[in-house]
Amino acid sequence: MAKVAREMVERAGVNVDELLELLVNNAAAELTTYYYYTILRVNLIGLDGETIKEIAETARIEDRNHFEAIVPRIYELGGRLPESMVDFHNCSACPPASLPKDPTDVKAMLTVLVEAERCAVRGYTNICNLTAGKDHRTYDLAQAILNEEVEHESWFSEFLGEGPSGHFLRRGDTSPFVSKFLK
Amino acid sequence: MACSIKKVFTKEELKKHDGSNGSAYVAFGGKVYDVSQSFHWRKGIHQVMHHAGCDLTEALGRAPHGSDMLDKFPVVGELMDSD
Ligand code: HEM
Ligand SMILES: [Fe+2]
Ligand SMILES: [Fe+2]
Which residue segments constitute the domains of chain B, with CATH numbers given? Predict the structure, then answer.
């Protein structure tokens, strides 16, 4: 634990134990989504499926990056990950992004994907709201992740016919916002 | 329309449905919703800091979503006015 780092956050009026639980639940959401998106990605085949495979893959890799970026902050603040991966899975802040019954139904696939991203957008907005002006480092981290979640949402929602997102596919490296926490 | 008499919950009755015995009810805007089946209300806890068995009308104002999230859950009654 980074003693003074935690003390600063406590003194600013943040309930650090609650924040830690939220961070663990969101770290769980990231790693489990990475897993479930792996299954979605391998099933994105055929003319329609292949079209969205690349963004699903980018979103998958970035979610793993989000997990990697959150974990150090959990330990800095004096928290830890559950010993059991089963417990970790089950405390996820977002539901499993399970493969639809009919994996050839691309609209159903996109709906699973966009809903997972929307849950993440809401979750990180909440962490930003709780830490803004108080816990600068967690805020910076949550805001970086939020930037990427908003882009993930926009990629999938565009394919669902919800209108133009204004975004391009990633060019170059993944995680343009979160990468500074991965170095 | 048989059997449609609305149940009126007192705060104490609502409190019993805090999710600890499998039944999670939340009050919003005078209505009581059954969220027991929701992934997001496992054990009656939502986003670490919200608890079933309570009137969350005010708390929802700070949520990153609107009250439409409650639309898909059954209304099981009304919350008795406390004053
Ligand atoms: C700071 C406060 C809150 C936060 C951060 C929060 C966050 C969330 C998130 C992230 C979701 C998932 C949405 C999605 O998948 O896109 C959700 C769903 C939901 N929230 Fe909240 N929420 C808060 C307060 C509340 C309150 C006070 C209520 C009750 C009156 C409430 C009722 C619900 C319901 C019913 C759902 C849908 C559950 C489902 O679909 O199974 N939330 N909330
Ligand atoms: Fe993520
Ligand atoms: Fe994402």
Answer: 7-79 (3.10.120.10)
Q: What share of chain A is helix, strand, coil (3-state, %, to 5)?
A: 70, 0, 30
pLDDT band at B51 (very low <50, low <70, confident <90, very high): very high
**Distance between CA atoms of residues B75 and B61, nearest Å:** 20
Task: Give ipTM to 2 decimals.
Answer: 0.92
Burial A26-38 (b: 16+ CB within 10 A, else e): bbbbbbbbbebbe
Range of the domain at A110: 3-181
Query: Do residues B23 and B17 touch, judged by C-beta distance below 8 A?
Result: yes
Do residues A106 and A49 lie in contact, with contact meaning Cβ atoms separated by under 8 Å? yes
Question: What is the per-residue pLDDT for B3?
Answer: 58
Contact between residue B64 and residue A125 where contact means Cβ atoms under 8 Å apart: yes
Q: How far is B3 from chain A (nearest CA, A)?
A: 35
Q: Say if A22 is an interface residue toward chain B (CB within 8 Å).
A: yes
**Candidate from A18, A121, A129 with C-beta closest to B48:** A18
Residue A132 has phi, psi (to 5 degrees) of: -55, 125
In the block, which residue shows the tokens 């928290």? Answer: A79
> What are the tokens at B69?
């999230």
